[in-house]
Amino acid sequence: MRILISALSTTILFSCASGDHTLAPAPDPATAPQPETAPAAAPQPETAPVVSSAPVSFAFGWRAGDEAVVTETTKKQGRNSTTRYTITVDADGDNLLIAYRDFDIIALDAVDMNDPSVKAMIKSAAQQAAAQLPPFGVTQQGQWRGFDDPDDLLRRIETLLEKDSVAVFRKTMANPQMRQLVMNKLEDVWNTWVATWIGLNTERGERYETTVSIPIGEQPVDAKCTIVVRDVDRGRRVAVQMITHLEGPQANVAMGKVLATMAASATEDPAKRAEIEEMFENVTFERHTTVDVVTDPATLRPDKVSTVSKVTVVAQNEKRVQTESKSWAFEWKDNKRAGQSPFRSPYTAR
C-alpha cells in the first residue's frame, strides 16, 4: 500500500502543481487591500527595474495573425528537458483559435541529441504527440474557451498511450473529478501566460496581499497570494511576480478526496473502495508557487514566463516532496496579417 500511495502522489502532485494558482482572478483594485511599498528583500526580476510613478493596466491584445516561437524548459526531480514549438493565432468567428505546430525536442537528459538516429526518432515522436493536441479557443477578451470536443481530445491522448494503459486511462477519465483535473491542467498554461493578468490595475513597485480561490479537483480552496509589479525596459515591459501559498484544512480535505478518488478507481469492490477512501481522510497538503512574467501590459504578449512549485503531501505517515520549475521564452514574429484581423488591439498603432 505504501507503494500505491507513492505512485499516486507522484502522479497527482504535478497535475495540481504546474499552474492551478493561475486560475485565480486578478484582484480588483477597488476592493484589494491598500498597497504598501514592496520590501527591499522581495525577489527581483532578472532585468533591473526602472522606477516609474505611473500606474499600469493590463489588457489582452492578441489578434489573428500573431505568431511566436516558444522555447520551453522543464526541470523536475533533477531531470531537465527543453522543447521548442510555434504558436499561431487565427480568427474563429468572434473568438480566437490558438494552435501549436513545428514541435521539436531540443534537449533531454540522458539522451545524446547529436546521434542522428536518436534525434530523428525523438523528432518523429514529438511530431506525433503534437499532432494529437488540437487548437484551443479563447474569447476576444482573452478568457479560456477550451476545446470544441473534450471527448475527441481524450481520444487523441489515448493514441499516445501503451495499449495496456488505454483501459486504465478510459476508466480514470470516466470519473468527473479526474476528467476535470486533466482539463484544468490543459488550461493552466494559458492562464499562466495571459489570463491571470487580464484587467489587473496596480501601481508599479507596490505589493498587494490578497486571497484567491484555487480549484483542487472540483473543490475551490482559498490561498494567500502576493502580487508585485515592476518596470522593465522603461515601461514598455513590466515584470510581474505572484507568490501563492496553498495550505490548511480546506486544502487537506480537497487533496485527500482527489487521492482517494484516484486510488479507488483501481477497484470495483465497494468494500475495498471504502477502505481506500478512509485511508486518505487525514492528508496534509501544501503547495508554494512563484510565477514571474515579463510582458507587454498593453497586449499581454509575454517575453518570458517562469514558474517554480514546491508540493508536499503527507498520507499514511509517508511524506512526499516534489519541486518543479518551468520557463517559456517567446520570440514574436511580425504580424503580416494585421490588416485582416477583425479585432482591435491596443498595439495596432505602434
Descriptive account of the structure:
With 350 residues, this protein is α+β, with helices and mostly antiparallel strands. It has one domain. It is built from 7 helices and 14 strands. It has helices at 2-17, 116-131, 150-158, 163-173, 176-193, 249-264, 270-279, and strands at 36-37, 55-57, 67-76, 79-92, 95-108, 136-138, 144-146, 201-203, 206-216, 219-232, 237-246, 284-295, 302-315, 318-332. The strands form 2 sheets. The chain has a 12-stranded antiparallel β-sheet. Strands 2-8 form a two-stranded antiparallel sheet. Helix 6 (249-264) packs antiparallel against helix 7. The longest helix has 18 residues, at 176-193. It is globular, with a radius of gyration of 21 Å. The N and C termini lie far apart (61 Å).
Architecture blueprint of SSEs:
Layout: H1 2-17, E1 36-37, E2 55-57, E3 67-76, E4 79-92, E5 95-108, H2 116-131, E6 136-138, E7 144-146, H3 150-158, H4 163-173, H5 176-193, E8 201-203, E9 206-216, E10 219-232, E11 237-246, H6 249-264, H7 270-279, E12 284-295, E13 302-315, E14 318-332
Antiparallel strand pairs: 1-9, 2-8, 3-4, 3-14, 4-5, 5-6, 6-7, 9-10, 10-11, 11-12, 12-13, 13-14
Helix pairs in contact: 1-6, 6-7
